[in-house]
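Worked problem 6 (solution included).
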Amino acid sequence: MKKYILIFWILLPCCSAKIENHNPKTNKVYEIFQVISGKMQAHNDYMEKNRLFEELIGHTMHFFKVVNTVAPQFLTDTKLYKDDILNLLTDKSFKRYDLIDYDIPYLLYNLHIDDYVDLLYSVVPLFKNGDIDQEIFERFIFPDDFVSTSLYQNYQNEKLQLFLNNLLKDQDLISKVKILKPYQLSSFSERIYRLKNGTMWEGDNEHSGFKKMYANGAAILDGLKAKMGY
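Solution. The predicted structure is:
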């Protein structure tokens, strides 16, 4: 009898994992993003075929247009889908067009600041384990300001301050990060300090902050939320 009970307890976790992998919501998010990816690929193919140049801001605006058409719930209820959307970055079966991995963080910028910080705690091990590259990692830590300035505006948020303190103490992470672009003269740690003390938003003697830059208009996602009432 004990032998059969032991077999039951060994098999139970496997069965549970199999059920989790077939979560209907997860599968639905996967299917919807396949549609979004296909539409973005078609858009890029059209631009290339007609030899039209599109700046990143134009590409991003089209991405949000597609999402708002195909799956507006990803914008209205982002928190509900955040884990499934993040998982797409490491899903080997997800067939994507070239830039979809770089668009996914843009959608997750839509989270409330507290929820976004919770997400950041999940992003760090993905980078440290090599599941996402540094450019995607930095898109989460330093959101592209032309998409959203929410994180910069909320630099005094208690959860964000704690997260940034933990980043600065993580020597394994700091040593793994390299300066990616020639114009990034500041180290990763220096940029974390600037985010933490608010100079990225408020500005200082050396840098013009995002607050001044967007005084007369909103970033793409912030403007979309105001326009659509999200």
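Discussion: The radius of gyration is 20 Å.
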